[in-house]
Amino acid sequence: MWSGYAARVPPARLVWTGGSFGPLIVFAITFAGSRLGTTGTVALLITGNLAAAVAIDRLGWFGIDRIGLRWYRGLVLLGAGGSAHGGGR
């Protein structure tokens, strides 16, 4: 079925799992975009990515070193997000 390099080095299951999320994300953006608007959809995407990054760091998934999230780090992230938002409309 595979030829060349792919025949010698089969892809990891994680690659196939990650690739299957592509159509799911496109569908979610299309579905949410019409209901939440562009800003809300992008905000949810960024929030989801940051939450996943915190979970990966905190729990040490994928074989990386665990990085704890202390209260002051959370406060700094909250302040950075608030200042980036600007607080106004």
Written description of the protein model:
The protein has 89 residues and is mainly α. It has one domain. It has helices spanning 5-8, 13-59, 71-85. The N and C termini lie far apart (55 Å). 0% of the residues are buried.
Beta-strand residue fraction: under 5%
The succession of helices and strands, N to C, reads: HHH
How many individual domains? 1
Low-confidence stretches: none
Query: Into which percent range does the helicity of residues fall?
Result: over 70%
Major sheet size, sense and barrel closure: none
Quick take:
With 89 residues, this protein is mainly alpha-helical. It has one domain (5-85). It contains three helices and no strands.
Structure characteristics:
89 residues; mainly alpha; 3 helices
Secondary-structure blueprint:
Layout: H1 5-8, H2 13-59, H3 71-85
